[in-house]
Description:
- The protein starts with a helix and ends in a 15-residue tail after the last strand.
- Strand 2 (about 290-295) and strand 3 form a beta hairpin.
- Helix 4 (about 50-70) runs antiparallel to helix 5 and helix 9 (about 175-190) packs antiparallel against helix 10.
- The protein has helices spanning about 1-5, 10-20, 30-50, 50-70, 75-100, 105-130, 135-145, 150-170, 175-190, 195-225, 235-240, 255-265, 265-280, 305-320, 350-360, 385-400; strands at about 245-255, 290-295, 295-300, 325, 365-370, 370-380, 410.
- It is built from 16 helices and 7 strands.
- It is an alpha+beta fold.
Amino acid sequence: MKSMLLPGGALLVGVMALVYSGWLTLASPALSFLYYCALAGGMLLAWRFHSSRTFLALLVLFLAGQAVPLLAGGTPSAILTIVRIVSVLVPIDFVLIAVMHERGFTVESISPVALVLFVESVVVFVFSRISVTVPSAAHVRHAAATMQFQGYALIILVAACAFLAGRFLFTRKPADSALFWSLLAFFLSLRFTGNARTAMVYAATAACILATSIIENSYLLAYHDELTTLPSRRAFKEALLRLQDPYSIAVVDIDHFKKFNDTYGHDTGDQVLQLVASNLAQVTGGGQAYRCGGEEFNLLFPGKSTAEVVEHLERLRENIQTSEFRTRGNDRRQVPRGPDRRHEKNRPRPAKGRIIRELAQEKFPTSLSVTVSIGVATSSRQQGDPDSVLQAADKALYRAKANGRNRVETASARRTRTKAAGIAG
């Protein structure tokens, strides 16, 4: 929920609070300048970071914003018609952009969406020129003030928001969260079309949300591991600088990880890493997990001693040991079925030598169990700096490996945890 609400949700709520409190005193030209700065800056960032989805979403907002000046050429009823058309097209465009594969700025990926946007722009332009009667400013304000979204427009909005929220929960990507909050901000700008300042504020907010999603995504790539989504080594190094005594560091290593890769393949190895990481992310006792490379993970426990965290580490070890995942074996049919597969009498009898070889072949299990070894150390006067504590935890980890794996060892031999379980095959 934190990654869903930040930064887009917090930005929209903050702007709404400013609007309703009356503290927003910027003039319309200044707000218009901020709006175009957000659009231009967001597009520039999207181009620089090869984020075609965000670029197209900002382009949709720009085209929708340009439809509002076109409304000056129509009757009040035409104004309502165009606003309602835009309120339907933009959610559909955001959903189409969300399902796009991020392939950068290639002709194959940009052309279909660009064609759709061109057709939609032509439709909006044609409807804006239905009537040549130029309404007065009072008529425009009255039409905008009485504007109510049709039921189908609200249904499409709710469906699009539900889809974008569900997609974010599935992908956990900032771009999907930004599309959700930006769509809500855009609808608020349409709702307050009669108030130019308020509409411009929400339109600029929608653009800012998309622009900040690029920065948020860059941060995640720099400080989080892409495979496991855990904080990376860089985040771990920065967290060490903020530690104050006392604190504990635990080093977690997957037992026989090379065997998983060599026997079952790297895809299964990645599944093992994800399985362990999902358990580490739920560690109790106030710990924070980091992936520092390969099959090695680190846990930080600020303000905790070894005696306070060892029980939580034991529970973590047991949870990982009892977590199983199923994998497909390599005993599937290697020869395609022939046309006479239903006629047993036509099938030649296998030779005894081949039967013996097949029985002797190793059959990979469909269910795998993973275990980890853990070493933990706590800061003290003798080892007050984080590097010394980390080295002590590493030594404890080596001792856990030497004593049979699948166990928790502390830096002090007197407090060594010798509780162990059987090693998974």
